[in-house]
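## retry 2 of 3
previous attempt timed out at serialization; input unchanged, resubmitting
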Amino acid sequence: MRTNLALTAALLLSAASAQTVELRILETTDLHTHALGYDYYQDKPTGEFGLEYTATLIKQAREEKRNTLLFDNGDLIQGNPLGDFAARVQPLKAGQMHPMHQVMRSLRYDAATLGNHEFNYGLEYLDRVLAAAPMPYVNANVLNPDGTNRYAPYVIQRKLVYSTDGRPYFLNVGVIGFTPPQILNWDKAHLEGKVQVMDIVEAARKFVPQMKAQGADIVVALAHTGINQGAYAPGGEQAGAALTTVDGIDVVLTGHSHLEFPGSAYKDVAGVDLKKGTINGKVVLMPGFWGNNLGVADLKLNYDRAAQKWTIADAQGSIRPIWDKTAKKSLVTPDPAIAAAVQKAHEGTLAYVRGKVADLTAPVTSYWALVQDDPSVQLVSNAQLAYVKAALASTPYKDLPVLSAAAPFKAGGRGGASYYTDIPAGTLAIKNVADLYVYPNTVQAVLVTGAGVQEWLERSAGQFRQIDPAKTDPQPLVDESFPTYNFDVLDGVTYEIDVTQPARYDRAGKLVNPQARRIKNLQYQGKPIDPAQKFVIATNNYRASGGGSFPGLDGKNIVLQAPDETREALVRYFTEQGTVNPAADGNWKLTPIPGVTLLYVSSPNAAKNLPAGATLLRVREDGFAEYAIRF
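## retry succeeded, writing output
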C-alpha cells in the first residue's frame, strides 16, 4: 500500500512539473524463422544473420536506455526449414507455442504484426500460432468476408516510463499493424472467400483517429510494407512513406522489402532525412531481414501541460548491424538463451533436412543463373513438368503441350553474397530440395496461347538493363531492383533474350514500351511458335494467381490447382529418379553482342565454373564479385 501511495504521489508531482522522457523503440522484421545463425541449406552455422545475434543488440540497446519497447514487424513463421518443420513435419498442436515465439517470449516483445508470409500455411495454422503467442498481434487491414476485422486492429498499451531525472509517468502507446493487400493474390488458395483486405493507408486513416480518441499518447505503426519511392496509389504494396502523412502516426516501422532504412537506397524519396532517419519528420525504420540488423528509434517526449498531451521534441532513427560486411566477421556474440529456447525444434529440423532423397551426379549451383540456362532452375522445371503431365493425364487438357516456368530464387541480390544454391554432387537431401525451392508454394498450371508465352517471357526479360551495343566500357547486365524470383525461364520452348532492346514491361509489370521485343527466335519443337496455339504452363500458386504482375495471369486461366507443395513434387520426382542428372538443356541464351563487355555480379565462388567468355574482375567489400562477360 505504501508503495502504491508513493507512486501515486510521484505521478501527481510529475504532472505538476513535466519532465523529458526518452523513449527507445526497437524493431525486428522479416526474421523468416531465422532464430539461429544457421544455414539449414548448407547445414552449417553463420554469423551473417539470426535472432540469436540480434538478441545481443537488443539487450545492449535496453541497457543504454531505461524506457524501451520491442516490436516485430512480421514475416516471422515462414522462410527456412525450421518454419516448414513447425508447420508441416511436426505441426504445432493447439496451445503449443511456435519455436520463434518461444525465443521471443524470452526477449519480452511488446507486440507484433502479420507479414504476408504469415498466410503461407493457411488461416487455420496461423490461428493456432497466434493463439499461443506471448505478445499481442495487431492488424488493421485484413477483414472477414462481412467487413469486420479478423484481427485486433490495434492495442493501446499503458507503459510506466521514467523521465531523465527519474520521475515516473504513464504513457499510452498505441500500436497498429498492416500487411500488403496483395496477400489475396499471393495466397489465393488459402484466402479466397475467407478474407478481404483494405488499403493500408485507408485502414490507417480509419483507425488512428480512434486510437487518439481512446487516449493514445503516441502511435507506432507496425507496417509490413516497403517504402514507396513515388506517389502512392491506393492498394499499393509499398506504403511506408505514405503512412508518414497520416495525422496521428508518430513512428513507422517498415519491412517486407528486405532493405535498410536509413539507407542510401531511399535518398531520393521526398521528405527523407537520412541523417535523422526520418521521412516527413517522422522516424521510419527498416532493419533488413533475418535479424541482420536491429532498428532503433529514439524519441524525446515532452508533456505539454496546457494542451494536456505529449509532444515529440526530437526523433532519431538508426539501424545496428550484426555483421561486418567488409571484414566478414560478426560484430556481436550470439545470446546463448536463444539457442536454448529453440534447441528441440532446431534438432528436429536438422534431422528432417538431412534425410536422403536421391543421388546427384553433378554439383548444382545458381551462380550463373541470370546469364545462362541453369541446373538449379532446370531441376525444378523437370519436376513440375512430370507432376503436371501426370495430373492432367485424364483431363481435357491431356493432349496439350506442357511447358514449365521456374525462376532462380537464390541468386544473390538482396539476400547477399552467400545467397546462392550450391549443392555438391553425391547425396541429395531434403535440405537441398529446400535450397532449390525456398517457398512453400503449391503446384498449379495455367492455360495460355503462344502469344501469351511471348508476353510471359518479355515480362521475365525485365531482369536485364538495356545494353548499348556501341559502348566498349563494361555495362552492368542485371537490374538489381528486379527480383530474381520474377525471372521465369520457360522450359519446353527455345528462345534468345536481346538485351540491346528496351524492356517491354517495367519493374511493376506495366507495359511501357509496346513496340519493344527482347524475346527473339521463340520456337516450339524447332518451329516459330504459333501465337494462337494453346499451351499448359506448369508454375506455382503465386504466379498463377497474379504474383509478379505477369501479363494474362490473374487467376482466371488456372487449369490445375494441386494440393501438393512444389517441394513435395520435387521430392517425389527425385525419389522416382533415384539418380539425378542436373544438366541444363540450354533452351535459352542471351543474344551475343560482339565487342561488348557485360558486367555481372555474383559470388566469388562463381569463379569455380566460369562460362565461356567470363573472367573475374574483382571481389568487392560487400562480399560480391564482379565478372566481365565478352561474347
